[in-house]
Amino acid sequence: EFQTDRDELQRKIHVPPELPDIMKQFTKAAIRTQPRDPLPVKERVEIPVATQKNDTGLTPGLLKILHKQVKCYGDLQRKWKNLCLPMAQLHNILQLDDFSEGVEWMKFFALGCSALGGVCRLVDIFSMKHACEILTEDPEGGAARIPYDTFAFIYSYLAGLDEEITGEATESYLKSLKEHFLIF
């Protein structure tokens, strides 16, 4: 009876004949290398916008993986390569600020959110939306709340890099948020 169920299942789901060998080779490689870091896992499928035929670039899901892994384990460049992200994109993001003393993760994260925004300004509604959606502990599709201090840090940092946004405008915006919304 078990064999019949398995045969029926195989007819319903097409399994390429080379899959068992691929899985065997992957398992052997994983055992041989004994990776210390957790494997990068996206929480959902994303359809990235390609900038070139073979370059899918940074997506919210990949930035979320980087946030989880780099924050805990460091080594941004290696993690970036492990996700098969284009090195040119990493260098472009790093050129937006002076990281000669080392990369402060939350600043890089903010710049990554800005890169996801896809517009010319460093700080905008899209970059802040990505930051909130990636950092939130709310269920997917929920409010995407993050602590006010985290939001204020990201917004202030990005606004500070934008020559068109004054410090007074940044302070005024953040003050209005505190006054009009429930801040936690």
UniProtKB/TrEMBL annotation:
Keywords attached to this Swiss-Prot or TrEMBL record, sorted alphabetically, are:
Cell projection, Cilium, Flagellum
Out of the domains of life, which is the source?
Answer: Eukaryota
**Where are the membrane-spanning stretches?**
none
Keyword field contains Transport: no
Q: Where in the cell is it found?
A: Cell projection, Cilium, Flagellum
Tell me yes or no: is Transcription among this UniProt entry's keywords: no
Q: Which family does it belong to?
A: Belongs to the ropporin family.
Q: Name one GO cellular component term.
A: motile cilium
Q: Specify the signal sequence span.
A: none
Protein's recorded name: Rhophilin associated tail protein 1 like
Its primary localisation, in coarse terms, equals other
